[in-house]
Amino acid sequence: MRHVVVAGIGQTAFGKFLDRNVRSLAEEALSAAVADAGVDYQQIGMTYFANALSGLVTGQETIRGQVALRNTSLMGSPIINVDNACASGSTAFHLAWLSVASGQTDVALAIGAEKLTHIDKSVTFGAFAAGVDVEERAHLQREAPQGHSVFMDIYSERARRYMESSGATPEDFALLCVKSRQAASLSPWAQFRQPVTTEEVLSSRMISAPLTLNMCSPIADGAAAAILVSEDVARSLRARRVYVRASKLVSANNDGDGPTCASRAADEAYEYSGFGPEDIHVAEVHDASAPAEIMLYERLGFALPDQGVKLLREGVTSVGGRLPVNPGGGLLSRGHPVGATGIAQIVELTTQLRGNAGKRQREGAEVALAECSGGQIGKDSALAAVTILSSFQ
């Protein structure tokens, strides 16, 4: 397998844009990534277009990538549509990496775009519910209030179990939100940039105990793109090289028991890259709810079981800490336009490894990890992707 370099990145701001469509969002992110890489459109040999839910919101299905990119110079070249729940963007990145690493092409594009806002929120919540086994979903939807995301009930159940085993409290989850907003206040791409206090988080509307509104990732529209190239092509480009050291994707065990998807994907990525959790300087993880980030500290090996909350309390994972996690604000504050999320993580980490993250920069960052999970099967996410990047080969 060949060495692969992230040569260009670009994204839109994330937010609620009722007046924009998937096409305009995708075009903006693509244009930024191409300009950043300094490549010609004609050099892009493969395009992987991630879009998970907006087909259910907008009605555009099956040829989403071709429709979104129809006004660009990519038309006529291979465009492959990718739908893999919340890890759709990460999957598109994985496929782009594979296509370059295998020698199939020298330049590949991973792009994710999502349009989720709708005047009727039940349409959006119904789209999110598609990420659960339909037979399980029917039961969950009967239990959930009208206009309510079934995923927050899933996350709240996990949070209650974690509180029992670890001693974590709602105040800890609120502290995580404060950390997230502080990071997002330093990012030009984040949906929510206004700092909050623990009191404001705890007093926000209860969604599914112990999760309040501010502890849940918001609905968002947005797009992100990454251009991957072979090392030979990278030598001719101006951008500082960021190497893909591992890209691993796994699915849930059939019964949902045993090591979680995130843990198994991380173990495979560590083994493939030769790095361990102690080598990671900065990370982006799938914090669809505040407790999820803390639990992922443990699943990724940053902390021992039931000890992840200590990293939060000690400031280790804050901007300025030894291991900042979600320095771009994460899903909680950057927003979660599902198909774009996994690639937005790559955009943030590439920015960090280039040393261009400004006030949210992790000084001396050389190795970074992205984790993104998606869907629900039994007791676990349906799949998880872990990517490891470095500023050196």
UniProtKB/TrEMBL annotation:
EC code: 2.3.1.176
Q: Which CDD domains match?
A: SCP-x_thiolase
Q: What is this protein called?
A: propanoyl-CoA C-acyltransferase
Question: Could you give a single Gene Ontology term from the biological process aspect?
Answer: lipid transport
The taxonomy runs: Bacteria, Pseudomonadati, Pseudomonadota, Betaproteobacteria, Burkholderiales
Q: Which domain of life is it from?
A: Bacteria
Quote the InterPro entries the UniProt record gives.
Thiolase (IPR002155), Thiolase-like (IPR016039), Thiolase_C_2 (IPR055140), Thiolase_CS (IPR020613), Thiolase_N (IPR020616)
Domain Thiolase N-terminal: start-end pairs: 4-232
Q: Does the keyword Signal apply?
A: no
Q: Which Pfam families match?
A: Thiolase_C_1 (PF22691), Thiolase_N (PF00108)
A GO molecular function held by the record: lipid binding
Positions of the Thiolase C-terminal domain: 259-380
Q: Which organism is it from?
A: Paraburkholderia elongata
Keywords recorded for this protein, A-Z: Lipid transport, Lipid-binding, Transferase, Transport
Q: Does the keyword Transferase apply?
A: yes
